[in-house]
Amino acid sequence: MANNSSIEWTEATWNPVVGCTIISPGCTNCYAMRMARRLEAMGQPKYAGTTRMSGGRPKWNGVVRIDEDSLSLPMTWKVGRMIFVNSMSDLFHEDVPLAFIKRVFATMRKTPQHTYQILTKRAERLEELSPKLAWPQNVWMGVSVENENYMFRIDHLRRTQAAIKFLSLEPLLGPLDNLDLIGIDWVIAGGESGPHARPVEPG
User: Fold this and answer.
1) Domain span including residue 172
2) Left (φ > 0), alpha (ψ -120 to 50) or beta: where does 114 sit?
3) Residues 128/157/64/80 CA torsion (nearest 10 deg)
4) Is 134 within the bounds of a domain?
5) How far apart are CA 196 and CA 33, in angstroms?
6) Does residue 166 sit within a domain?
7) Tens digits of per-residue pLDDT, 66-120?
8) Comparing C-alpha atoms, which of 165, 168, 1 is closest to residue 69?
9) How many folded domains does the chain comprise?
10) β-strands 57-60, 65-66: how paired?
């Protein structure tokens, strides 16, 4: 867990899962791939083997690792804060077992002083598992949408039991002319950052 996150829309990060798989254009230059490579080089074992080099850049290789020891970390923070869950992965990745997702939700339920922000690109699995999860009021659920080809993720989000639903339109790679915000409580929008960043094209 990291306090004082550099991510503008949150205050801290919590990573009970690390590693991921590229599934859509928004993943191409994901900052977390570079960070995972750096953390592995710094000797953090849970990031070992989660990336491979391709074209001189680190890319996710599909290794996803759960970190049981991280589950209780939010309980050590007594002062409430905004916490981005899995900034280094996707909680709804197909290789994260439902049983473990339930344990993550249990931790969030036991720490009502915090507000948790979960973001996924795997909206289909999110909707599928949503009825099997106990959604506390302090959990905000979001999906990433980078262009109009992925606006279907918003419909999956709407059908979940999350109290607060939000969108991350980052990196915004194309226009969203027919964006429907009914049922959406919050929107983050912005461009790509870091090396090889692509231009913002809002239309």
Assistant:
1) 2-17+66-189
2) beta
3) -120
4) yes
5) 13
6) yes
7) 999 999 999 999 999 999 999 999 999 999 999 999 999 999 999 999 999 999 9
8) 1
9) 1
10) unpaired
CB atoms within 10 A of CB 11: 17
Tell the residue number behind the tokens 């996924």, with chain if given. 120
Q: Per-residue pLDDT tens for 18-72?
A: 999 999 999 999 999 999 999 999 999 999 999 999 999 999 999 999 999 999 9
Which stretches of the chain are assigned E, i.e. beta strand? 2-3, 12-14, 17-18, 51-54, 57-60, 65-66, 82-85, 115-120, 139-144, 164-169, 186-189
Query: Tokens at residue 179, please?
Result: 């964006």
CA distance 36 to 63: 12
136: Cβ contacts below 8 Å, ≥ 6 apart: 105, 108, 109, 112, 163
* Nearest-angstrom CA–CA distance, 172 and 134: 32
Residue that has been written with the tokens 């262009």 in this structure: 147
